[in-house]
């Protein structure tokens, strides 16, 4: 099976995007997938979330500008089959600098090409910034599909129409003709509240099979794990959060197998 590239994205912050990137990557790795977690968010929370220190010059910033190779930026993590392209604050300038380059939406495609051709990974997960700027659009151009974390709140679907419009524009312009929503993961779910259950029902009604069956709970353990530099499956493997991301990983693997050309 060819390497599949998934962009984890939502232009709204605080929806569990990085939490999903880190924990899904770790659970895919435990399930036997060779995973490259690509931290494309200047906040670098995915980097620290897998226990890698933020180091000046470690990000893909210079590679995206055409200097050096992405392979030089890949770091091992403490977790088997899980590698990382770290981020750090210099990526903040990338939106401006990359926008000035030729083929500015193709920079990530060019950087990833040798990695994909090497066959070293089964899945590349890109943790995107919480915006629809140049970095996120590069991820959309380079990916096979977008995994959207949606928080279980009334405004969950707000912004999905904007994202779908942009995806349509990228498809129609021939920039990424195959681009589509790979799946929607409902996050911060609390089954005790009527609101959460109503939101999930509404999202399923609107988006249908795009929505994963697994619901990611709002738990203290999930919030604690990043401060220890560990994904939840390695921090507390018997927690509800670990069980949920493990189930989500199984769903992702099944979809990847079904969608394989």
Polypeptide structure, described:
The protein is an alpha/beta fold. The chain has a single domain (4-259), classed as P-loop containing nucleotide triphosphate hydrolases (Rossmann fold), CATH 3.40.50.300. The chain is built from 11 helices and 8 strands. The protein has helices at residues 17-30, 45-49, 61-64, 94-99, 107-118, 134-142, 160-172, 194-207, 220-224, 232-235, 240-259; strands at residues 4-8, 35-39, 75-76, 82-85, 123-127, 145-151, 181-189, 211-217. Strand 3 (75-76) and strand 4 (82-85) form a beta hairpin. Helix 1 (17-30) packs across helix 11 (240-259) and helix 5 runs parallel beside helix 6 (134-142). The radius of gyration is 17 Å and the shape is globular. The mean pLDDT is 92.
SSE layout and pairing:
Layout: E1 4-8, H1 17-30, E2 35-39, H2 45-49, H3 61-64, E3 75-76, E4 82-85, H4 94-99, H5 107-118, E5 123-127, H6 134-142, E6 145-151, H7 160-172, E7 181-189, H8 194-207, E8 211-217, H9 220-224, H10 232-235, H11 240-259
Parallel strand pairs: 1-5, 1-6, 2-4, 2-5, 6-7, 7-8
Antiparallel strand pairs: 3-4
What are the key terms here?
alpha/beta; eight-stranded mixed β-sheet; 11 helices
The helix tally amounts to 11
SS strand fraction:
15-25%
Q: How many angstroms does the end-to-end distance come to?
A: 9 Å
Q: What is the helix/strand order?
A: EHEHHEEHHEHEHEHEHHH
Report strand order across the widest sheet: 3-4-2-5-1-6-7-8
Structural class: alpha/beta
What proportion of the residues is helical, as a percent range? 40-55%
- Please name the CATH architecture: 3-Layer(aba) Sandwich
- Name the CATH homologous superfamily: P-loop containing nucleotide triphosphate hydrolases
- CATH fold descriptor: Rossmann fold
Total strands: 8
Query: What does the largest sheet look like?
Result: 8 strands, mixed
Mean of all residue-level pLDDT scores: 92
């Amino acid at each position: 099976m060819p390497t599949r590239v998934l962009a984890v994205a939502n232009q709204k912050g605080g929806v569990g995007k990085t939490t999903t990137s880190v924990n899904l990557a770790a659970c895919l790795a435990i399930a036997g997938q060779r995973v490259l977690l690509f931290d494309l968010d200047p906040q670098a929370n995915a980097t620290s979330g897998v226990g890698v220190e933020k180091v000046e010059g470690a990000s893909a910033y210079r590679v995206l500008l055409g200097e050096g190779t992405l392979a030089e930026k890949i770091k091992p993590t403490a977790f088997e089959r899980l590698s990382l392209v770290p981020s750090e604050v210099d990526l903040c300038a990338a939106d401006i600098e990359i926008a000035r380059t030729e083929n500015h939406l193709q920079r990530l495609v060019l950087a990833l090409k040798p990695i994909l051709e090497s066959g070293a990974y089964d899945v590349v997960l890109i943790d995107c910034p919480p915006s629809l700027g140049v970095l996120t659009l590069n991820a959309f151009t380079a990916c096979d599909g977008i995994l959207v974390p949606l928080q279980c709140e009334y405004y969950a679907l707000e912004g999905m129409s904007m994202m779908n419009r942009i995806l349509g524009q990228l498809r129609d312009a021939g920039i990424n003709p195959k681009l589509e929503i790979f799946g929607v993961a409902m996050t911060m779910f609390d089954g005790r509240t009527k609101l959460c259950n109503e939101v999930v029902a509404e999202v399923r009604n609107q988006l249908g099979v795009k929505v994963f069956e697994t619901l990611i709970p709002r738990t203290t353990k999930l919030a604690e794990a990043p401060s220890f530099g560990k994904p939840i499956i390695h921090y507390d493997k018997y927690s509800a959060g670990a069980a949920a991301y493990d189930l989500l990983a199984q769903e992702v693997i099944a979809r990847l197998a079904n969608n394989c050309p």
